Amino acid sequence: MTELNRRNILAGGAAALAGTAALGESAEAKVGLTPIFPVAQVTVPVVGLKEVFPVRRIYCIGRNYAAHAIERGSDPTREPPFFFQKPTDAIQVVAIGSVGDHPYPTLTKNYHHEVELVAALKSGGKNIPADKALDHVYGYALGLDMTRRDLQNAMGAEKKPWEIGKSFDHSAVLGPIHPVTKTGHFTKGAISLAVNGTVKQNSDLNKMIWSVAEQISKLSEAFELKAGDIIYSGTPENVGPVVKGDVLLCKLEGLPDMSIKIV
Ligand code: MN
Fold first, then answer.
1. Centre of ligand 1 from the C-alpha of residue 173, in Å
2. Domain 43-262 listed as CATH 3.90.850.10
């Protein structure tokens, strides 16, 4: 190494350190730090409030109703809960009383509906005991965990991640959030989904293998949960395909209906 090169490297290193120190020391510098481009915070409306619920992460539980576990080929009596995530910006909010246009996604020929109760957290933590877990719930919503089933199955068969089958744009359909102060907690109640007026999925929340409280507890063993996290709590049996033009109507006892049209 030449002396000139050595001096340049040392000078560059010193400048970099000085830059770091300046940023670290100066509160003004921190305040002045702005993103190089805007990235939107994903939010969900809250019924009765002007404020919106900011979404941090989307967790989903798999095979949480015995009859659905059996139709997906697993044993509901032995399998511990398992989870996957969707990207936050996969959320499509559907307003009460409207029919949301939901785009049929690319790459699939077997696009499935999964109606689910969704829990929204106002706080979190690690290793949350089940008997304290519901204290962290801000509210509930009615949701659809839309699924490219052919891609999910193909990836599963190859022991590859489900990502492409589950975690794509618009795959997390959601109605507005209802504060638990207004609705109470959901541990039972009819949940159903109809396609073009024909009921396809029809069950009760009391048939969940793992309750929302148990889901929060189990999730918090694997991840530190935080305010803004939402949890899709699993779908009952009789998931099935939809095509363009289909209108889906989701019902959950105690909440307004939610509807989308596949376009
Ligand atoms: Mn699901």
1. 11
2. yes
